[in-house]
Amino acid sequence: MKVTVCELRNDRKALAEDWDALVEHCRRERSDLVQLPEMPFSPWLASREIPDSGEWLSAVVEHESWRNAFADLTPATVVGSEPIVAEGVRYNEGFVWTGGARVAAHRKYYLPYESGFWEANWYERGPKEFTPAGSGDVTIGFLICTELWFTEHARSYARAEVSILAAPRASGISSTEKWIVGGRAAAVMSGAFCLSSNRGGRDDSGFEWAGHGWIIETGEGDILGIT
Q1: What is the reported pLDDT for 134?
Q2: Cβ-Cβ contacts under 8 Å for 149 (sequence gap 6 or more)
Q3: pLDDT tens digits for range 114-161
Q4: How far apart are CA 84 and CA 63, in angstroms?
């Protein structure tokens, strides 16, 4: 199986450029699976402490419209997370998209509450369920960004014998090395290849995202590829 990770900038023009480059790469390399960053198709709303329901709904619409572009990556399976509203409640939901169909896989449970990452204010935690998602012959476990640090779930994915640990991220440049260490540990503990894609570049507020999408192997936690 050939997998692709990436980093995507959030500026509209830059995002379109990055997407075109991603599509070209996946077609050339015949990627079987593409990992996207955490909620990549709208501005990072949780940079502000006070939530705005209208802005959240706008982000939901933006992500729904971008799903049409997933067809450009066919026949690859697409894995990522996006904002949703379910029964009037806001969530950050991990998904698996394949064959034109989107399957909900996991709702982020561990939500940061700190400067620049006021996620606990913006949306609700999902149920404490870390259940593998299926994609053909491959099983995928989700640890969305912060969840990577709750290692008991990496161990539970090991018992479930998942093939891939998907870790869509939104993390800044100052903590890059820490996150790579966390990804290596998660790969070893889960016995799965750990894939992570992240936001890249500098946003309108001047915050610099880390980029550094990675592919990490299971045995020794060696890095096989990094953006």
Answers
A1: 82
A2: 110, 182
A3: 999 999 999 999 999 999 998 668 999 999 999 999 999 999 999 999
A4: 9
Q: How far is CA 81 from the centre of its chain?
A: 5
Confidence (pTM): 0.96
Residue 219: which CATH number? Answer: 3.60.110.10
CA-CA-CA-CA dihedral for 144, 40, 196, 1, to nearest 10: 110
Q: Angle, to 10 degrees, between the axis of helix 152-159 and the axis of helix 176-190?
A: 30
Which residue range forms the structural domain that includes residue 184? 3-226
Quote the CA–CA distance of 171 and 208 in Å, as a whole number.
9
Exposed, middle or buried, 47 (CB in 10 Å: 0-12/13-18/19+)?
Answer: middle
Looking at the 3D structure of the chain, how many domains does it have? 1
